[in-house]
Amino acid sequence: MKYARLTKEQFDELTPEFSTFLATQTIDKAEWDAIKAEKPEVAEQELDVFSDLIWEGVLSRAEYLEHFSKNHIFLFQCFESEIKSIVLKSAVPETDFLSKEGLQWLSDNMFTENVEMQLGKKEYTEERNVSLFALIQQGAFLSDGQLYKQINSIIES
Known about the structure:
Low-confidence stretches: none
Structural class: alpha+beta
Radius of gyration: 20 Å
Largest sheet: 5 strands, antiparallel
Shape: elongated
Strand content: 15-25%
Number of helices: 7
């Protein structure tokens, strides 16, 4: 498996897509039920293949990722061969970017000595989607990039 198996909740959301996936392999519902009962290892393999296909599609379309922690915000813009980052760090230990108040504090203090900002750019050391998946496993999530774009436009002006 290249990525990770989807959760039960994710499979539930993707039931029509999974049915189509099985149909492309000429597996109907009755045959799928038989495979699950008689050859669970084959069913597991099918779930893994489907999971990888879904992850590959999602990661291929990913443009922005964000990761929030108590004192840091990591914003990423994902390109074909490299990833750019904006890292915000609070110089005030009590700040909590995981709270609404912490985000308001960031807004009020963005361009003061209380917020350290680092810009970065790195070429992928692994395949692009594998690198992005590793960030997701560390807590990043897909985003529309609004925060990245706002901060980047201020920096560039």
